[in-house]
Amino acid sequence: MSSNHSNNNEKPSFNQVKPTITPSIEIEHESDGPDYSKRAQWLRAAVLGANDGLLSVASLMIGVGAVWPDPGTMAQTGLAGLFGGACSMALGELASVWAQRDAELAQLLRDQEDHPSPPGSLDDKKRALPSPLCAAAASAAAFAVGGGVPLLAAAFIKSYKARLVSVLVTVTLALFAFGWLGAVLGKAPALRSSIRVLVGGWIAMGLTFGLTKLVGFTGI
């Protein structure tokens, strides 16, 4: 009896439920659109190059025109600014990207020594590094495109006032367009970026014109 009684008092362990462990599943979010982070380098070079060309050449033409308003002087000044600026942009981009490439290549070699990769893998990684020559060419071309805008706007206009207005209107539209394009490609707020670029360009041209005019008045 005692044995049966003890067996009857034993309750089934239905409350002891083993926890169900759900294996963690890593979900890879594949983006359907382009990887905008990969656009950062060429987008930066292109937008900065075009804006620099536009503002540099326009400011030079407006500044020189404040003292010598004849069309030949303004055009020659613009051309000199375009050639010199394109070379400067190309050289700066070449040095910058080459330094970046050297640093990344050195890191790849250190990683190869610590964790050897399969044959051919290091060569593939080297080919994926940014090209200094391509970056320099893209930067110079972008500067030339931007700098050509004010030159074309003033090339066939004889009157100084009409030429000045033409340059200002054309550069204003180009600044807004470049700011809008850079924002759209980089997925940034388009209107805010365009206004920021436009206001900055107006300030740069205004300061150049005013300071050059002041120097002309002083007779230096």
TrEMBL record:
One annotated GO molecular function: iron ion transmembrane transporter activity
Signal peptide residues on this chain, from the entry's feature table: none
Main location: membrane
Region of interest called Disordered, as start-end residue ranges on this chain: 1-20
Keyword field contains Ribonucleoprotein: no
Entry's family note: Belongs to the CCC1 family.
Name listed for the protein in its UniProt record: Vacuolar iron transporter
